[in-house]
Amino acid sequence: MDPVDDEDLHQNRSHQESDLTSTDSGGSSLFFTEDSRSTTSSSYDISASSSSSGEIPAAVVADVVVPNLVTLTTISTTTTTTTTTPSSSSNGGGDGGVTELNGTVTVREVCVGKKNKGVTWGFASIIGRRREMEDAVAVIPGFITRTCDHIGGCTAPGSRTSGEISPVHFFGVYDGHGGSQVAKFCAERIHDVVAEEWERGGTDVDEWRTRWETAFANGFERADNEVAEESVAPEIVGSTAVVVAVSGCQIITSNCGDSRAVLCRGTQTIPLTVDHKPDREDELARIEGGGGKVINWNGARVFGVLAMSRSIGDRYLRPWIIPVPEVTFTTRSEEDECLIVASDGLWDVISNDEAGEVARHLLRRRRRSTMADETSLPAAQAVADHLTDLAYRKNSSDNISVIVVDLKSKRKRQQRQSTG
């Protein structure tokens, strides 16, 4: 689609609360833009009760971990490979890998997430300068609910907190092209099939990464097959898919396409995904090895058409465009500030580092104001709104969708302010 002239952005804001129990994920909610011309901005707190505190009590959230382990696993159509790459590099290539950021993993007495009780989030999704809205956003609190030991990657194994029931929260951004049908379908379906595939996995604690990798790979493949089998859209329609599952101890990211997720940790902005671009060295080799071509037509494109090398849908470009995700595992830390999950409408005009710096600055300022006035806009929502507006002002020509997940608990913020 061609960009259109600048038009006024009409903000339709809605603020809701999603209640979540520790044993039932039935309170899960799905949000995506129905009106292709609307601007949507929403903020939510994940809570274990009907109160308005917006905190997840200790019995609900699995904890986070100080160790800083980032693992990127590339799942190919025939094999699974793991190599070592620097996690702090920009999104520009690499086959995936394992990176230790700050030393070795330390076993703790409790999961970090037990202290990080509050998980709040906000999102903004606007049509921007496009003629149609093709992005979709999904947020599913507690899409899987198990003990931290069962989920995998617990850094306090055998502790009291590791055996408590805890939810895993799901955040997804889907950037459609050629139409909105596949993106909307993904927003409605991918979390369900991933959860189903995860439930089918083994129970070997030592194989928890493999279980998640398989769940995401099979889930994305199932969604892709259903798009064709259910005639969801013509073969020329497709969508990216970047999803993040947040447990008490792990941040698990699955990416297919050129949407992106980053983690703000302390003063660092850590990319959790690597864009699937046709001129990425390994992707170019895969495409050309299969008889395809990458043509530079307003940027590198598969056969001069599609500016990404992986997606859901796009059957007319098989086998060169594949629905195979890359999965990363990041051990949570007490220094984690927030997650930013967004479509390329943001990343085309704002770098990882710039987005991280803006988020950190605004989060800290808004947290202080929120503590003084609990009726004010949640910090995560303020950041999502600001990043979306900033991308638009920087002349982004695409739809812009941003989810921000605040990983700092209210209690920890209060402790910091009282000692500040």
UniProtKB/TrEMBL annotation:
Enzyme class: hydrolase
Positions with biased composition (Basic and acidic residues): 9-18
Superkingdom, natural source: Eukaryota
UniProt cofactor(s): Mn(2+); Mg(2+)
Keyword Endoplasmic reticulum: no
Keywords: Hydrolase, Magnesium, Manganese, Metal-binding, Protein phosphatase
Residue ranges of domain PPM-type phosphatase in the record: 120-407
GO MF, one example: metal ion binding
Hydrolase found in the keyword field: yes
Disordered: annotated segments: 1-51
InterPro entries in alphabetical order: PP2C, PP2C_BS, PPM-type-like_dom_sf, PPM-type_phosphatase-like_dom
Biased composition (Low complexity): 19-51
Pfam family, one: PP2C
EC identifiers of the protein: 3.1.3.16
The family this protein is said to belong to: Belongs to the PP2C family.
PANTHER family recorded: PROTEIN PHOSPHATASE
UniProt-recorded name of the protein: protein-serine/threonine phosphatase
Organism name: Macleaya cordata (Five-seeded plume-poppy)
